[in-house]
């Protein structure tokens, strides 16, 4: 665990507004999250949970307000310090499990851990040469989770991360999230189901 991993971080949103397709999804949204902390973003379908993750990841531009990271790596942008895991697993079907992971490691760059160890941690070490097209939904999700471990980024933005995971997979993922937080990481997860770890709730758009 490096000293950098332990540096305090604080992510703050102030008066954030989101417009999609010309329609306001939410506005005036305030939130904050600190290193070592998990935030569960909850709300009804269409409230803007995915949109908020995409705003933080820099994949959408806020229509108003600011999103600021204090205490992160001053040489990197906020999106460069985030892992965004969408609810659709971004995998190349013709590439094998290990080739998919290598693709993401090359694409994202930066510090990386041992890919074989990551695949073992998510229970895919028996399937490294299998084309991603042959993976089950839960196995695809596990491969996406291996990305979080292979390429080290301190902020995990997770969209419905436990979808398709069996009970053992949810336990495994709970352990990985706890380790990430213990290292000074941050997790912001859009979810309809309990995340499986202690988290603070950020509700968007009133009761679901
Ligand atoms: N590409 C797009 N163009 C226009 N509108 C969009 C686009 N993507 C999403 N929206 C709209 O933005 C709103 C928020 O969508 P978002 O996916 O962020 O909601 P959500 O809270 O994650 O919903 P769910 O619980 O169903 O996953 C919805 O009304 C949706 O129709």
Q: What do these coordinates show?
A:
This protein is an alpha/beta fold. The chain has one domain (3-203): Rossmann fold (3-Layer(aba) Sandwich). 29% of the residues lie in helices and 25% in strands. It has 6 helices and 8 strands; from the N terminus they run H-E-E-E-H-E-E-H-H-H-E-H-E-E. A 5-stranded parallel beta sheet has the order 5-6-7-3-8, sandwiched between helices. Helix 6 (167-182) links the parallel strand 6 (155-159) and strand 7. The longest helix is centred in the C-terminal third of the chain and has 16 residues, at 167-182. The radius of gyration is 17 Å and the shape is globular. 38% of the residues are buried. The mean pLDDT is 92. Involved in beta-(1-->2)glucan export. Transmembrane domains (TMD) form a pore in the inner membrane and the ATP-binding domain (NBD) is responsible for energy generation. GO terms for molecular function: ATP binding; ATP hydrolysis activity; transmembrane transporter activity. One of its GO terms (biological process) is cytochrome complex assembly. Belongs to the ABC transporter superfamily.
């Amino acid at each position: 665990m490096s000293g950098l991993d332990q540096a305090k971080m604080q992510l703050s949103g102030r008066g954030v507004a989101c417009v999609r397709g010309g329609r306001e999804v939410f506005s005036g949204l305030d939130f904050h999250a600190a290193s070592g902390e998990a935030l569960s973003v909850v709300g009804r379908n269409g409230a803007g949970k995915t949109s908020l993750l995409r705003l933080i990841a820099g994949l959408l531009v806020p229509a108003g307000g600011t999103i600021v990271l204090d205490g992160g790596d001053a040489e990197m942008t906020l999106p460069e310090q985030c892992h965004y895991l969408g609810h659709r697993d971004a995998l190349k079907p013709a590439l094998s499990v290990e080739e998919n992971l290598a693709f993401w490691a090359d694409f994202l760059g930066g510090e990386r851990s041992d890919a074989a160890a990551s695949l073992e941690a998510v229970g895919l070490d028996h399937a490294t040469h299998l084309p991603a097209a042959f993976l089950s939904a839960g196995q695809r999700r596990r491969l996406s989770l291996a990305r979080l471990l292979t390429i080290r980024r301190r902020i995990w933005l997770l969209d419905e991360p436990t979808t398709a995971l069996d009970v053992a997979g949810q336990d495994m993922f709970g352990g990985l999230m706890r380790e990430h937080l213990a290292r000074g990481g941050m997790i912001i997860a859009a979810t309809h189901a309990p995340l499986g770890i202690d988290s603070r709730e950020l509700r968007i758009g009133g009761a679901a």
